[in-house]
Structure prediction request, 446 residues.
Amino acid sequence: MASENPTSVEYIKHHLQNWKVCKTDEGWVWNQCQDAGFWSINVDSVIFSFLLGAMFCFAFWRVAKSAKVENPGCWQSFVEMTFEFVDKSVKDTFHGKNPLIAPLALTIFVWIVLMNFMDLIPVDLLPWAADKINVLAFGAEPGHTYLKVVPTTDVNVTFGLSLGVFFLLLFYSIKVKGVGGFVGELTLHPFSSSNKLVQIILIPVNLLMELVGLLAKPISLGLRLFGNLYAGELLFILIAVLTSAGIGGFIGGGIAYMIWAIFHLLVIPLQAFIFMMLTIVYLSMAHEDH
Amino acid sequence: MSIDLTLAFTMIFFIGFVWFCMKFVWPPIMATIEERQNKIAEGLAASERSAKDLEEAQEKAADMVRDAKTQSAEIVDSAKKRHAEIVDSAKDDARAEADKIKNGAMAEIDQEVNRAREQLRSKVATLAVAGAEKVIERNIDESANNDLFDKLVKEL
Prediction:
């Protein structure tokens, strides 16, 4: 809403813009970050991802504190259902002893589900409210407040998660196999030879292939989640544009919005589940000693 | 839409949440779930045990009922036997008593008959003497004829 009556393009662009703060030559500024580079922060992503994660921690911690063996309440039953689902997924895939894996998987799953679920809040609701607050409380110009409420549509958030997983993967690979074992895995597969000379020639080829495979893990993990949610959010925004096109557009847009929301209801836990499962698989591969 | 400082924040949050979850959330809830699973397993084992106990008790009860039945049959048998015995002995007693009474009555009747015969005999003798006195109209020496009368009386 760059102006009072934004065009569709302006509307969409507005909705895809993060609430940013960045370091420029004149110090830290708000929302003037076209070429700020690395030193900028998506404030909305940080706030919402933190709030949702804290919500998860607090809600589950309260259950943990008052967990009853007999006669568990509704909320405890729900939490336990989630636990058993995650625990089963971990036990089916990960055959080692590591007290980190299951809580890691649970955190990833619930946190991503919560962040994805922000997608089902009507696209204009929170940005509109934020705009009103900003105008009334801080005297900002209408339409100059930016807010993206779905943290997983921010590539920084998804890569933050996938890089966290990637570092754990490197850590456990080296811890379980040793530096030599890990380097050996990178250089001696998939092509190996009993002839020493041939083997030395093959090492760079192997290293290249394995490095691509290794780096593909965090990138695919982060981009898959980002792409799915970004596309979903974009479609919600496009449908929202459609609803402004007359009475037919309003009705058709409403129906389309509902259908896409129902479909998205499937995508949200599915993407969280995929992220969790791949994390478990990657870490279980890191624990396998050949 | 570029990589920036947000990523660092997210990673810090990620590490913090995972640490929190690992420290304060996962262990207590998992312990609760495991404890419940153990309890359920124990409960099932106990119910199985008690079902077996019940079966044994039922068998025992059936045995006891069977024993009681045979015992009661024995008691009824012996009671019947005893009843028959009592009835028999009562019959014998009654018969003996009846015999005694009958014998007593018979003896009395005999006595009465004898007495009556004696009376009759003495009356007949007196009558005969009186008749003879009247017929003959003579004084007969009574002592001379007494043995004759006695003979006559004995013949009666």
Summary: Chain A has eight helices and three strands. The longest strand of chain A covers residues 20-24. The radius of gyration of chain A is 23 Å. The CA atoms of residues 82 and 195 of chain A lie 52 Å apart.
